[in-house]
Amino acid sequence: MINNTSLITSQDRVNPKRIASVDMLRAIAALSVCLFHFSNGNPNYFPNGFWLKEVGSIGWAGVQIFFVISGFIIPYSLFANNYKYADYKFFLLRRFARIEPPYFCAIIICLALNYLSTLSPYFKGEPFKFDFINIALHFGYLNAFFNQNWINPAFWTLAIEFQFYLLIAALFPLLVHSKVWIRYLVLSAFLISSLLIKNGGLIFGFTPYFVLGILIFYNKTHLLSTKYCIFLNLLILALIYYNNGIVPCAFAAFACLSLLFIHHYSNKYLLFIGSISYSIYLIHVPIGGRIINFSMNFVKGNEGRSMILLLAICVVTVMSYIFYKLIEKPSIKLSKSIRNG
């Protein structure tokens, strides 16, 4: 079932290069979330029952795919780099350099577009107001703990991801401990936390998705056979189904199957979208959402609005690529420059 020897030696460690199935999954997750926000974000854009609105209504579960991916790829990277507790601060510095500059820039974009929107004669919302406390809470991912709205409704997941980074860096040496019972005791406690802690602003309500990814990490590093990985994943998927229903369960199952069994297939379009998926996630609401809302003044039919939705996805993709080149890529470079002490 499990390799019960000491940890895999450095010569046998995994290659941390990019994994095609991960990038393709990121693309599917990002596009799913875009479709959800563009088809359902404005409840009056499409009538109830219209097929595109119905299909898009489940796209929110793309977030669960992101959680499964993180549960796999972060431990995978830590394992490949022989992570130790002494590396904790350097790991967090690299994550901070990787995700925070694009996030901060996305906040600025949201503020700028919120203000500029009020200048349009077609604007129908509340007057622009800069809430210093609300914005300050964004920088610590604290909005949910103070009942404050996110300036971008997609940002709540970034808070969950950041909590995962803090936890995985603390737990990882135990998750790959040479004693099998220690690994599974820690992993079980992480999973059980989802049943005991119900605060929606905390990661614990989403731990089953991360655990699915961790089990796949075990499989990819030969700490768990494929047979037992599938068995344990099925048990966790059953828990997700019981607690959250069929939609997030199906999306999570799709992510697991893709990570476990897609080894050689790749699609260049999905790989491209996957490579800029973080940028897409950060700016798709303020840019694509405004295209949707603005078009309501001129386009009335479902067919025409469906074309506008497609246009919004195309514009967001182009703008996200520019954002990636100007903001995200330098952040990636900065992150890679930070070495363990």
How would the global form be characterised?
globular
**Low-confidence stretches at least 5 residues in length (pLDDT < 50)?**
1-15
The structural class is: mainly alpha
**How far apart lie the N and C ends?**
36 Å
Helix content: 55-70%
Quickly count the helices: 13
Q: What is the domain tally?
A: 1
From the alpha carbons, calculate the radius of gyration and give it in angstroms: 21 Å
**What string, H for helix and E for strand, traces the elements in order?**
HHHHHHHHHHHHH
Number of strands: 0
- Name the average pLDDT: 92
Please describe the biggest sheet, giving its number of strands, its sense, and whether it closes into a barrel: none
Q: What fraction of the residues are assigned to beta strands by DSSP?
A: under 5%
Question: Which tags fit this structure?
Answer:
341 residues, mainly alpha, globular
Helix-strand blueprint:
Blueprint: H1 20-40, H2 51-56, H3 62-80, H4 88-118, H5 132-138, H6 156-175, H7 180-196, H8 207-220, H9 226-244, H10 246-261, H11 268-275, H12 277-295, H13 302-337
Describe this structure in words.
This protein has 341 residues and is mostly helical. It has one domain. The chain is built from 13 helices and no strands. It has helices at 20-40, 51-56, 62-80, 88-118, 132-138, 156-175, 180-196, 207-220, 226-244, 246-261, 268-275, 277-295, 302-337.
